[in-house]
Amino acid sequence: MINLIDYGFIPTMTKEDTSFIPARITAVHKERYEIACEYGITYAKPKTSIYYGRGNETFPTTGDFVLIQYNNSGDSLITKTLERKSFFSRRDPTPGRGEQAVAANFDYVFIMASLNMDLNVKRIERYLTLSWQSGGIPIIILTKADLGEDFPEQVRAIEKIAAGTAVYAISTKTGYGLSGLSAYLKPRKTMVLLGSSGVGKSSLVNALARKEIMTVNSIREDDSKGRHTTTHRQLIMLNSGVMIIDTPGMRELGMWDVSVGLGEAFGDVERFLGRCKFYDCKHNNEPGCAIKSVLVKGELPQERWDSYLKLKKEAKFSDDKAGYIREKIEWHKSIARCSKQRKKNGDSMGRMGR
Ligand SMILES: Nc1nc2c(ncn2[C@@H]2O[C@H](COP(=O)(O)OP(=O)(O)OP(=O)(O)O)[C@@H](O)[C@H]2O)c(=O)[nH]1
Ligand SMILES: [Zn+2]
């Protein structure tokens, strides 16, 4: 028996449809989902009439809350994807399908980078923008502090571009800094880990899980099911009640619509906008350009401005592409409707002729 509230479910998430029971997607397999619901961990499939064909219900992803028709002798049927409070998406590998959510309903985004490799500031800025846009709260975690001697300096450098986001240096080898994360690692909260391969994402999950197993054994003896597997696209429930979404493909996250995210991640840059003499200033060499002036004075670091422009450009490209794909889908739909109509007419005429 599972109380879905322990999975972060809030009863007011469902208003109507009380005959269906709520569940959370804990893993995504091909066309089949592992779910947590009041009957335990089980499997479900999207209900065909709702998700395929004419239905346009959003396909669920890891972390989604859904409604199901429970089936105790086989796969349950998913009837609705509940509104998401946060999500990350990437371009759907199936051509023409637009964007695809890869993780949903997380509270915090752990942006992870390693202190012993070159700290890629641009990548962190990009992740910050995506995180603010996603609806989750970003936390920057700099890993492998045991390997870098000058890490306080690196932390300060990252804090400069983090615009208020908390930055932590940790080591899963020595345990350094891990206690600083406890403010976020609370029961019913969901984290998603963002970071390049090798930065130590799995090591962090293991470190957190190991700790739990030691302290939790005495508290929750009945919950001994080892769910700490490394299968991809998974929501891992730690014994502490914290959930972690571990999903590949975060590298392909698209800058879909990041207008909000850019503003949050680059508040220090955007506050200078709109102050130029000319309304349509391109900030090149126009007279009275406020941007040029703060760049020259050093009030705005050139790298920050460059990053901002680059991400804005990337976002515009993605937006246009999203628009383009949407248009294409609409076009295909209208063609499909026409040919269906034609077939229907043809069919009925055929029948009449018989
Ligand atoms: N010295 C040191 N090494 C670490 C630390 N954390 C992780 N590592 C090592 O870094 C390597 C990569 O760690 P992983 O946890 O697998 O990294 P990951 O981000 O999960 O990588 P992917 O699964 O490829 O995405 C392993 O060899 C770890 O032992 C740390 O705090 N200190
Ligand atoms: Zn200007």
The percentage of residues in β strands lies in 15-25%
Summarize the amount of helix as a percent range. Answer: 25-40%
CATH topology of the largest domain: Rossmann fold
Main sheet: strand order? 10-9-8-11-13-12
Order of helices and strands: EEEHEEEEEHEHEEHEEHHHH
Binding site for GTP: 143-146, 195-203
EC number: 3.6.1.-
Pfam families: RsgA_GTPase
Cofactor: Zn(2+)
Features of the shown structure:
354 residues, alpha/beta, OB fold (Dihydrolipoamide Acetyltransferase, E2P), Rossmann fold, Ribonucleotide Reductase Protein R1, domain 1, 6-stranded mixed β-sheet, 5-stranded mixed β-barrel, 8 helices, 33% helix, 21% strand, disordered C terminus, binds guanosine-5'-triphosphate, binds zinc ion
